[in-house]
Amino acid sequence: MAVLRVDCRTLLLAPLLTCLACAATTPPPGTPPPGMLARLPVGSGPTLLAISPDGARVYAAANKTLSVIDTAANRVVATLPTDPYPTGIAVTPDGRRVFITSLFSVRLLVVDTATNTQTNSIDLTTERFRGGFGRMAVSPDGSTAYVVNYGNRVLAVVDTTSGAMDVLLMNMGARDIALTPDGRTAYAAGCWSFCTPGTMQIFDPVSKRFGDRFAVGPGPYRIALSPDGTTAYTANVTDSSLSVIDLATRTVTHTVRAPVGPTGLAVSRDGAHVYVVGQTGGDLAVIDAHSLAVRTIPIGNRPRDVVVSPDGARAYVSTSSDVVVLDLQAI
């Protein structure tokens, strides 16, 4: 069992440690990215991002801290202590709560956005290895959080009101999960027996049962859905690509070259653009969802995650020490 414990944590830490050790190649130190409006210090990375539904706040979960960014003023208005090494963050659809998971923690932190304070935490249990809970998706009514655990190969279905939890065994290691806009179907992306190709699996939130699996790009690390729920995108770290998946046929229709080491992924609210951050390469790719044309914006400083404002005018990119605010219309 001791050997298994080491192996599990190695798997969990591999993407984190590998990416943190990489140096971005562009731009040169001190050169601001094109269209940069602000650079906001938020603590040491890796920093994960979430944006409120109205776009008024960006939440930056850095190592041991959560920074609350006022997007109108482009400044940090609150900083809260959290667990080290964040692995997942999400805002409820009503914007009232933020949930945070961390690498070795066995709790889901809950933050009240009205007071910017931690209200409580929800216990997360595992059968084999401590921690490992990562990315999550939240139901449209905010009552349920679906949290993947790669090392333990489980999906936690958490009642965010009562704290009750079901731990469902998976036959794959999932890195990320996304819900369709109506909340009726979830898609988990990760690795089955091997990571080449990667795997996407369907989950029914009503029956709490897993459905079919199908292949996507190698080593999928992030997943995002189009606003109409017809298309999925996976950012694949093994070959630095973006898979475009038709969910009706469950097939990859296109593969797009992504920045090296893609760890951040977002889709604009109108579905017109896909944004991919490459931590190793130090770039943000802006991809036209229709033509699949790619614009590359050099960020540098090991960018990790990206969120986009509801109107599509701004992007927020986390780096190893700050959040860069970009005017997308000026690029």
Structure description:
The chain is mainly beta. The chain has a single domain, classed as Methylamine Dehydrogenase, Chain H, CATH 2.130.10.10. It has one helix and 28 strands. A four-stranded antiparallel sheet has the order 1-28-27-26, with no helix packed on it. Strands 2-3-4-5 form a four-stranded antiparallel sheet, with no helix packed on it. The protein has a four-stranded antiparallel sheet with strand order 6-7-8-9, with no helix packed on it. The radius of gyration is 18 Å and the shape is globular.
Strand line-up in the sheet with most strands: 1-28-27-26
Work out the helix count: 1
* CATH topology call: Methylamine Dehydrogenase, Chain H
CATH architecture: 7 Propeller
**How many domain regions?**
1
Number of strands: 28
What is the approximate shape?
Answer: globular
Unreliable segments of 5+ consecutive residues:
1-27
Cα-to-Cα separation, first versus last residue: 52 Å
**Strand composition percent:** over 45%
Query: What class would the helix/strand composition place it in?
Result: mainly beta
Q: Largest sheet, described in full?
A: 4 strands, antiparallel
Could you report the average pLDDT, rounded to the nearest whole number? 91
The CATH superfamily name is: YVTN repeat-like/Quinoprotein amine dehydrogenase
Helix content: under 10%
CATH class: Mainly Beta
Radius of gyration, Cα only, in angstroms? 18 Å
